[in-house]
Amino acid sequence: MMVGNLAGLGVTMLDVDDPTQAQAADAFVMAHSDGTPFHRTAWLRAITQAMGHRALLLAAFAPSGQIRGLLPLHHVKSRLFGDALVSSAFAVDGGLLVADDRATAALAAAAQGLAGDRGGPPLELRGGPAPGGDWQRREGEYVGFVRPLAADDEADLRAIPRKHRAELRKALANSSLNVETGRSDRLRRDHYRVYAASVRNLGTPVFPKQLFHSVLQQFGEDADILVVREGDRPVSAVLTLYHQGRVMPYWGGGVADARRLRSNELMYYRLMGHGRARGMSQFDFGRSKVGSGQAAWKKSFGFDPVPRVYHGWSADGARRDVNPTSAKYQRRINLWKRLPLPVANLLGPMISRGLG
User: Fold this and answer.
1) Least C-beta-crowded within 10 Å: which of 31, 33, 271, 300?
2) Going from the N-terminus, what domains does the chain have, and what CATH number goes with each?
3) Confidence of residue 84 (pLDDT cuts 50, 70, 90)
4) Sign of the Cα pseudo-torsion (33, 42, 51, 184, in order)
5) Is 353 helix (H, G, I), strand (E, B) or coil?
6) What is residue 221's DSSP assignment?
7) Is 148 helix (H, G, I), strand (E, B) or coil?
8) Nearest 5°: phi and psi at 308?
């Protein structure tokens, strides 16, 4: 479906369920140095499949038929949080991915037109080049953490600052802790149990199980789970994505005992070794809120924060209230922390679908 034409480039909406179109889009993403898992059609399909938000993949084409840029979007609909066109939903990155500067303006204009056709929801681009024009630049809210993997386990251990390294050594010396990686049903169950408890304690509604199943299904061997157990009891767990040499732990957490056991430290350290064995060269610790305890923890693990820049646009300047640092959102967090875990796990998947 043709949605625009600007600067000699045509903009078309691709069908992520069409194998030929999806293959062409993914080939562009995998060949681009700034491509992420959140630009891939696997992510777009997984979110639609699990959360119900329609994927809208805009592609800028040269007259030759060659893809020169992509903008993956989800139309997130929520009565509680409001609607938005998000690139990409439930992702920490995404945004415009271009091989031709002309594609930036063409795709941004097409996205604005798409928003108008869909009732005027705001546009949220998580990363990528600035669209220019009247788009808002949003920074100062999040930082990212990436560094190269060291040559071996011992070198990775030395790269961790001394104080945090001492905590990790305690976990390494704890013979009751064991680590398993893979994609089995048992690992999926353990991951969800640990993750659900972890996010409830942080005041965040848990995502539905189907989201994790869909991501694992769509990404195949480019996604797996690592679980740390104390004996048979899962205490820390993470679902990780692998993309173009990057290890990307994405949905992870620990139970209340994780701090005492230092099992989160052990989890990420073992994941570094696991990633290296898979041929990865970078460890991407994801994003954290500026000034948060999570950001401080990652820094103490030997990672330097780098500001994340996002972009937004709406016809009336409005935006959704999904910023965890806002006063209204903080009240929701404080309420959620007090819910019994079974209640939080029942209500969380219904609410979290709208966060996007």
Assistant:
1) 33
2) 2-139+309-320 (3.40.630.30), 143-307 (3.40.630.30)
3) very high
4) negative
5) coil
6) G
7) strand
8) -100, 130
Predicted TM-score of the model (pTM): 0.91
Alpha helices in the chain (DSSP H): 19-31, 41-51, 101-117, 153-159, 162-172, 185-202, 209-219, 258-261, 263-277, 293-300, 327-337, 341-352
> 279 burial class (0-12, 13-18, 19+ CB within 10 angstroms)?
exposed
Measured in residues, the chain has a length of 356
Task: Concatenate the DSSP letters of all residues of 247-316 into one string.
Answer: EEEEEEEE-TTHHHHTHHHHHHHHHHHHHHHTT--EEEEEEEETT-HHHHHHHHTT--EEE--EEEE-TT
Nearest CA among 92, 42, 94 for reference residue 221: 42
Q: Determine which helix (DSSP H) or strand (DSSP E) holds 225, and give its type and residue range.
A: strand 223-230
Beta strands in 7-96 (DSSP E): 9-14, 54-61, 67-76, 84-87
Closest residue by Cα to residue 65 from 32, 131, 126, 21: 21
Bridge partners (DSSP) listed for residue 56: 73
Strand partners, 143: 288, 307
